[in-house]
Amino acid sequence: MPLLTTPFAQLDLIRQPEQPDEPLQAFDAADEYLLNHIAEQGVTLQTRVLVLNDSFGALATSLAPHATVVSSTDSFLGAQALGKNLVRNGLTYDAVPVVPASEPLTGPFDWVLIRVPKTLALLEEQLIRLQDQLAPNAKVVAAGMIKHLPRSAGELMEEYIGPVQASLAVKKARLLLCTPEAKTVQPSPYPTRYTLDEPKIELINHANVFCRDGLDIGTRAFLPYLPKGLGSARVADLGCGNGVLAIASALNNPDAHYTLVDESFMAVQSAQENWRLALGERPVVIHAGDGLAAQEPESLDVVLCNPPFHQQQVVGDFLAWRMFQQARSALVTGGALYIVGNRHLGYHSKLARLFRGVEQVAATPKFVILKARK
């Protein structure tokens, strides 16, 4: 794989999760453009730099030996990639502190470097939190590949931080150079809330939660077919989002034991709040993680999953396939994975390669609900 070469360093970087013969690199031209811009401006070890949404740690790893860097991300995999890439390039795993996007920032910061995220609600929430965290004469710069850089990103920066000047395009990347100005600190519109009719629960959704304004249609198709009569089964909600699948299942299975995991810190925060709202102090394990990678083998009876079909802007079934493999490892013999998926994704044949029995539980014109038994 090519090295990231900038005035700060020449780095060998990997993506997370790792896969053999990785076709994609862990940085892009927007990372290079942003780092070259900062090098022209100059930083010192006393310069406090905040990096937001650094996909695999390219920015923070480059700057770590040259400035005081803090990274904030909503991705467990992104945080893991940063640590691994620091070690890979001669630094310590914790050389750059990571603040989950669900937690407050502690400024003031002299530079704020933003990789514009796919979800603009996350950008909006981050900009709102930045408003009282900037040092005098702070510089705020956002970067992205032009095809992933909507006009509204600059409009949000202007609304919450100050005037924005767009750079010239370089290698199909662009910078948004923002000049902070005094503004009245605005309240956040997040989290959002909506109520389901069946089950009758309210759901809290922090800014980066998938379908935060209403239940996504895949989950809506899945809910009526969640397994009942589970007794004291050990159940995991893999890629739990706001926790709705596990909560709905738990309401029908009062003696079952639940683990909820998602790679988004804001999803985990939402799921924790929603579980307490619906189920009070009922015991549960909810955590951010790389799917079921940390789950003991053969320690679960049931896995529920509405798998993603993209990682950031990259569309594909790599993450779903990996989740199916993790579920198989974590399930006891005779245990079952229940999933919902778009018909055209062909999950039935993929699951049949891993599980001894796959059956269609239900179908709608768009989705299938499948049960795969180990």
Globular, elongated, flat, extended or rod-shaped: what is the shape? globular
* Total E-strand runs: 20
Report the order of strands and helices: EEHEHEHEEHEHEEEEHEHEHEEEEHEHEE
Report the end-to-end length measured between terminal Cα atoms: 37 Å
| Strand line-up across the major sheet | 5-4-3-6-7-9-8
The CATH class of the largest domain is Alpha Beta
* Residue share in β-strands: 25-35%
CATH architecture of the largest domain: 3-Layer(aba) Sandwich
Major beta-sheet overview: 7 strands, mixed
**Secondary-structure content class:** alpha/beta
How many H/I helical runs? 10
For the record, the count of structural domains works out to 2
CATH topology of the largest domain: Rossmann fold
Mean pLDDT: 94
Proportion of residues in helical segments: 25-40%
CATH homologous superfamily of the largest domain, by name?
Answer: Vaccinia Virus protein VP39
Rg over alpha carbons = 22 Å
pLDDT < 50 runs, ≥5 residues: 310-315
